[in-house]
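Input record, target 12 of the design panel.
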């Protein structure tokens, strides 16, 4: 009986020690962003990202950096909202998931009609494409189709899914509706997508 009691007490102490070692929400966000706690300021606050993520804050303050930072400090943290911070005030304000021009595009569809289903199965899913890359993928496919190459259903389905993803991102961004498409849209340079979609 005594051994069971000691084991229970030891387990309890171990659990409390582990819980105390876990980071707070603010610390977890700082770790995720590779920041050290204490670098949060209005100068380093990515206020556009915050406004784009939380439409209620945008409706109140638009892109007013100071007002949005105060909202994050007084309301956002208590509600476990994500506030992103630059490492230095001089750092670029762009979102972190920007397409690298060196990132290769998916291959063009094969001319062999019977190989097109395998090509389709190996494609990068639209939700995994940045705003810039999805436009590049779409333009590349459009150029292929315009050459009057042999076009099968997989090629047409790919064109439609790219267009649907772009339309959904732009529509949800303009409507500030939130959701996965909205977050994908705002996580990168949205202007290039809005310009492309007209």
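The sequence produced for target 12 reads:
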């Amino acid at each position: 009986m005594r051994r069971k009691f000691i084991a229970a007490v030891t387990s309890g102490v171990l659990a409390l020690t582990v819980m105390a070692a876990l980071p707070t929400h603010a610390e977890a966000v700082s770790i995720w962003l590779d920041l050290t706690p204490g670098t949060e300021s209005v100068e380093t606050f990515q206020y556009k990202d915050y406004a784009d993520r939380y439409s209620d804050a945008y409706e109140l303050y638009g892109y007013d950096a100071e007002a949005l930072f105060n909202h994050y400090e007084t309301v956002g943290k208590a509600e476990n909202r994500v506030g992103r911070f630059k490492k230095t005030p001089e750092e670029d304000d762009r979102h972190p998931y920007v397409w690298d021009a060196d990132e290769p595009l998916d291959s063009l569809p094969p001319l062999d009609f019977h190989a097109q289903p395998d090509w389709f199965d190996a494609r990068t899913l639209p939700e995994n494409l940045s705003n810039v890359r999805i436009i590049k993928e779409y333009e590349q496919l459009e150029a292929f189709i315009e050459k009057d190459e042999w076009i099968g259903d997989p090629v047409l389905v790919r064109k439609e899914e790219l267009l649907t993803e772009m339309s959904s991102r732009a529509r949800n961004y303009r409507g500030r509706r939130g959701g996965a498409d909205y977050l994908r849209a705002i996580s990168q340079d949205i202007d290039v997508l809005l310009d492309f979609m007209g």
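Residues 153-175 form the longest helix (23 residues).
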